Amino acid sequence: MPRRSTLSAAERASLLAIPDTGDEWIRHYTFSESDLSLIQQRRGDANRLGMAIQLCLLRFPGQGLLTDTMVPASLLEWVGRQLRMDSRCWPQYAEREETRREHLLDLRTYLGLEPFGLAHYRQVVHDTMDLAVQTDKGIVLASHVLETLRQRRIIIPAMEVIDRICAESITRANRRIYAALTDVLSADHRQRLDALLKRKEGSQKTVLAWLREAPAKPNSRHMRRHIERLQALQAIDLPVGMDLLVHQNRLLKLAREGGQMTPADLAKFETQRRYATLAALVIEATATVTDEIIDLHDRILGKLFNAAKQKHQEQFQRSGKAINDKVRLYGRIGDALLEARKSGADPFAAIEKVLPWEDFTASVTEAKSLARPADFDFLHHIGDSYTTVRLYAAPFLAVLKLRAAPAAQDLLDAIEVIRGLYDSNARKMPADAPTRFIKPRWKKLVVTGEGIVRRYYELCALSELKNALRSGDIWVQGSRQFKDFDTYLIPAGRFDDLTQAGALPLAVNTDCEAYLQERMALLEQQLASTNHLAAADDLPDAIITDSGLKITPLDAVAPDTAQSLIDQAAALLPHIKITELLMEVNAWTGFTRHFTHLKSGDEAKDKTLLLTAILADGINLGLSKMAESSPGMTYARLSWLQAWHIRDETYSTALAELVNAQLRNPFAAHWGDGSTSSSDGQRFRAGGKAESTGHVNPKYGADPGRLVYTHISDQYAPFSSKLVNVGVRDSTYVLDGLLYHESDLRIEEHYTDTAGFTDHVFALTHLLGFRFAPRIRDLGETKLFLPKDDPGYDALKPMIGGTLKLQLIRTHWADILRLATSIKQGTVTASLMLRKLGSYPRQNGLAVALRELGRIERTLFILDWLQSVELRRRVQAGLNKGEARNALARAVFFNRLGEIRDRGFEQQRYRASGLNLVTAAVVLWNTVYLERAISALQEHGQVVDETLLQYLSPLGWEHINLTGDYLWRRSAKLKQGRYQPLRPFAGA
């Protein structure tokens, strides 16, 4: 029988913990008349109390009263009050063990419970295996086992038995997964998979290692190399639909396990497991490389367009002086002609007075050469870079298996024509080549009097292909990011079942007419209220005139009296090394226990080694330099630990542990209750090997970079971070952090700056139960939308932008609900859907209808903003916390000049996750010691105004030593107590 433990000690304790709150006691432990009758049949208060407690524990958690069960005194008192007796008689219960057993037998009969036996064990293992093929998380499986036993009225066995059930279910599920992935493989498939473990010809790497290399610079040469990788993966020719045979969670984990193993390790696997692992690696690598190739194409075209714009601007600048001279000359000629008309003189003689006629004729010719057409554009310069695209276009189009929606079928037909030209080595475009996809901007270049110009036709098609892939009009077989739009959503049949059962997990009335009636009534009420205030000039700190909206800037949030307290508290915080801080926070929270082994699920045995690897990510030092700076550490040990214990999900669960600790800390309640949050993007330059992987956004300058998009709670806890492309609007990632974090925070209201909002985000946040409150720059230019025409809101006219198209919402209501449900259930990420819905050129019915829904919510928000100074203050305070957190992150991430230099995207993600975990640890440590500092001030007789505590911040780092050698020794100062001693008071 499998011996591997699937549960940590903390998980074991939590699964069968006795409830400790009144609400849970009421739900589980309220006695009925028959319960009380049975209990009162016992003789003596102690036996009646014992019988009652056994009855409670058999109902929940379901084990009964074991010999080592510690019943909370508060529960004893609560049960005693129901029985009208003194619970202090509890120690006298069951001085005879036989009494306990007798009570247990009577209660089993009364409750209709069965003792757990071998038959139950086998049945539960079999039932749990269906869940184990979807996930191998022990806590999920164990929770399922317990729920199954309770439903079947079977007494819960010891936790060791539950653990064995989960382990055996995982083992059997693994065998089923291996069989599913290998039974469809032919002998040729297996031979091609075995070849992946051999060295690639002319290289020291295996074929598998070569296939999994990240792409280099976005140019034709590296594009062709990456296309070769995809061609090699496709040549393995795994059976179509193989990726659907296994749940995606397990397939991904199997691929990750295989990716961390050496070819020698994989070769030692038993046959079925080896081929299943290799097949999972190929499936995962195919999707990854496909998406990377599309991204490379996107970035290459981006570079070409930017170069064309630059060339266009430089050319125009070079002509600037000559154009200015001509304008001045023709100004003089114009003056002379006007004077001649006034005096009745000969206009031609007037021109000759300015300059000789021959010179005038030459100047006209020169002016024509300097003049640009009315549709002045840079696209003609794109043709100069055609060779760059031509070098990879043929294999690029050949390797992608494209499919199209009807709206993009003409574009796909054009791609087929281009493929045919490359296959046949033809040069001339066929006269009947599809042209409906060509935009007017391209038309004059592509279609001329001599026919279709191939270079511009091809460049136009490839540019439109890039846009169509983004929007979902065209999708790619084998891709992860560019699949058919419908496949991202929950199946239509399942959605219909949820709708009919009234079980859609959304925060709004799912009946369209009822929903619209409610929102329109609220909108009309808010419009009338705001219009009345505006007409009377009574809007708080705001005024609407014909020239627009003007809002008075908010005063400083923190009063002057708070600064003295801030300085005093900061002066008391202990000086500490970052290593000591992390060790202390881990001693409080045990967050390192979440970094479990990828394969076995065991905790890391060497906590110091683990903390070193985490810190290497957090301060951007890297494993090699960290090994040099940490006595006793080696790169090999750190690299092994990172490979097996550090992953996105382990970082996420460890972060949740710290965020939850902050949420439970009573001092953090001075800053908020954890119900509001803000998010913001922080750019880090991509340097060194990572420079080619970075993206350029003119907002941040010309240097390539990456953006870490972070969500922070009102208690300063950074509960989510995501490494993203700087070229994508921040609003794309707002919902990801709110929906997919693993902490206990329950966010109700969320703040962003202008880059964080779109109408689509307004719509989806509302549907999913969040109040979205962005700080919108140039708010007066953000229009209000009305329920109907000519409503008579005269005072608001400068801000009115139109009428809502409610029929669009009605027409696509089911599609909107299906999309929101899919995002809520995690079938697809919100960011992926927002990218597609907001992409050019497709403005399909769903996107437009969602925009209209967002306009309702945006209008309601703006009306609230105009009426509420308190809302404006909340938003400003929330965003200020995020900006202050960015300053802390910049200070922590100081190595390598604060640049991300890892070429692999996975390592870049680890940098972002490590940074967020370390900053969360700093926030928690500062919170604990700020509380101690305030207590110390009070003990020294200082009266502390508690209303000023909200202005303290746990984001300081001046007292934390982030540099030097990284030694992992517990501070000797902690020997006398749990905490570091505060610094002495000034003058003490």
TrEMBL record:
All copies of domain DUF4158, residue ranges: 7-168
Region listing for Disordered, in residue ranges: 673-697
Keyword DNA-binding: yes
The Tn3 transposase DDE domain, residue ranges: 580-966
Keywords: DNA recombination, DNA-binding, Transposition
Similarity annotation: Belongs to the transposase 7 family.
The protein's name in its UniProt record: Tn3 family transposase
